[in-house]
Amino acid sequence: MTVWTISAQEGTGGEQVAAELAAAAGVRLLDHQALAALARDIDPDHLDVEEFDRLEERFGGRLRTVALNMAMISGPVTGAAIQELQLLHKLPELGRAVLTEAARRPCVILAPAAFAATQRHPSVIHARLRAPVACRIATYQREHLVDHDRARSLVTHDDHIQRDWARTIYHVDLTDDALFTIALDASRFTREQLVNILLAAGRI
In CATH, what is the architecture of 3-203? Predict the structure, then answer.
């Protein structure tokens, strides 16, 4: 039984690769929406749709964490700050529960830090798709029809959010290729080649 987690930088075609890999392997694809639905099934009392959709933006940033810490230190601590801290404390456990449940059956999981929550799973291929930032900016420009400055801003912003989310929630460095089963420079392969490489990794 093979489960793939895919952590993809913006501009590397992660969504397309994940979808094509799932189709080629004949397994389900668990993207952001599917994981949100699973999280709500597991913990319906603590997460609503809007909350889940904003989690990475809310907690995937060092400034947010610093602000919460300062609220605890300097006070007065508001009810909202306490709720944020409680959720921040709960997220790693919830993430592991969601991804453990997801990995009970063969699937492709598309989420930046899914690898960190499933490290002990014996049959998971953890893949990282990355590429030089200039290549990713050019890809983003083509796909979204925006100018270079806008593309660079959005690509680098997503990089920061992904890195800070992984660091804040799971205390891992998303840029450390040693944490992954396989790390691929998406600028050096076609999408078909990427899918075939990941399929082959799942058969080893």
Answer: 3-Layer(aba) Sandwich (3.40)
